[in-house]
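[scheduler] slot 2 assigned
[scheduler] job type: sequence-to-structure, two independent chains
[scheduler] chain ordering preserved from manifest
[runner] begin chain α
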Amino acid sequence: MRRAIDVSMIVETEPSIDPVMPPAPPPPHKEPFGANRPRDDIMFWLRIQPSQFGETAADLFEQITVAVDPAGTHVETYYPEKFFYNGKNTWAVRDVAHLPIKTLVNEAAVVDVPDTELPLYPRDLIRGARHLKEGDGVLLRAGLNQRWLNPGLHPEVIGNVYAGQKTGMTPEAAQWLTSKGIRLCGFDFRSPEDPTNRHELPVHAEMHLNNVLLVEDVANLDQLRQERVLLLTGTPLKARHMDGGLARLVALETESGGGYRPVDLTHVLGPYPQPRAPHRRIELVEDRLQVMRRADFMFFEVGWGGWSDVVGPQYMRFSTQAGTHLVNPFKRVDGEYQPLYAEVMSIPLSRLVAPGALFDLSYIGPRQVISRDDIRQAQALLEPGGWAVLRTDHSDWYRSRPDFLEDSPVLSPEAVDELAGMGAKGIVTDLTQLAPLDRRWELQAALHEHDMLAVEAAWHLWLIRKPTFTVAVLPLNIKDLQTSPAHTFILEHWE
């Protein structure tokens, strides 16, 4: 038996009044797009702005501006109420911050479907779905996206991704799947819709109204060897009111000797347009808490095939330090900052999904320093190469306080040395800062020296009941990104 725990913090979201990054829609936050900005172009908008706290860099991060309905692998939970409820276009009812854990971490059946130019009917699904069980996720494998591998790196081909798709599900096929009580439907083609019904979206309606999470444009299904997998679905930014967005999808195949073989099912995205001057934007140190807690939405209208604003198009902007986030530690060399990995997407999946052990440090109070002795006294059963999960409960107890960041307990370099001596290659912690700003580079240098990653600002670590488990850290899969929000899961194994 398996028990999954989502330890990723929820990020608040709000409409942006004065977006810093383009586009800058006028009040009421709507920007009409003409023929010079087709929908395909809008979907590919992804901008990365290097940023730092303070004139002298106290910490580095990045600001990301991206379409909510992007190119590449993404989730859709629910269209605006206008689509179903007589013209009310308000916030979505179901959002990614409140997706059930059973949807995000669940068994999934890999179902082979014909790679044809004809719509898919129930008979086409039934042939390959004999192993489908009630409540499963479903991965439909047609092999179609091998025709445009990693479309997020090739904006010039996005038109072909849509225009070139000849297959998709009929409403009857979608109804057959929902009758099986599925929780998630992913597929390696761009849209689940039969192209003849694309503008009416009957498959979207059937799936959404039956609480099925859609994952569009899944990658690398041809790399799966087993017909059933454990599927991890993460929206790296776990944001309230966000009804879709970028996803990181990982399938775990069970190995005969125990453990998992992870397979990344996520397309790689690339910045578009490229920044003209890659200078760092300077943020005030006093704004750190807002940078961590918030994502901004920027709404606009787009006319495409007569849809106008039916599907609620929107950009969103967030920091790579928003919520629970991955620290790819930097060291300073001759005044330059060098990360452990040149970019987040180059981190091996075997490092992101690895064994973990609990270090119960819940007796550590605000602003206390975690020492070498504290690590030793925890007597954790850490496997070499695994994640050390440090529980203090700070994120849970103090999240509503204005000194949420400054009151965090911190790690000493000696504690990092001790963890490295135990074989740790990563730290997951509910600390909101690993070290005070005036010692952050010292702490990051210690992590860098020991080849260790870190995840800050997790929460709900008190839900962990087992001393050992599997940790899965799912950052964004974006080229040139050096840090990232990260949806993080704990997988406990029970007899």
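[runner] end chain α
[runner] begin chain β
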Amino acid sequence: MIDKKTPQPPGTLVLVVRRTINANPERLFDAWTRSEELLAWWGPRPVRCTRAEVDLRVGGRYRIDNLMPTGDLLTIEGEFTLIERPRKLVYTWSVATGVAPPELVMVRFDQKAPGLTEVVVTHERIEHAAFRDSHAIGWNGCLDGLALYVASN
């Protein structure tokens, strides 16, 4: 149990976000790793994904450009460190400004029943509580978008 009154050292915060989605792990894995599909669902609304590049191999890189409601462009990029299709992805996460050291994201696609999958996003090495809170909003919005996308495609 974490005592919220005791500050955590920088880079040690962890966020876990879960969502059960009506799709199989293969479908969700593909939607998460194909550029053309990321463009359709990525980002909490009203953020819009304007560019998605994925080199899906260990050591391969990805880049996602997010157009913010303010008109600013936020680029997220990193490197894949583990790929276990269709069950798990692990990759580094950096905002292109390079202000903080790379964070780490693990995405699991855990089948709960035929056509029903729990997506678990574990985001680690977060520097500050404000970043964690922002990531929580972002990941929840992304999972909302993913669920809507696979339901309609």
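[runner] end chain β
[qc] chain β: The chain has a mean pLDDT of 93.
[scheduler] slot 2 released
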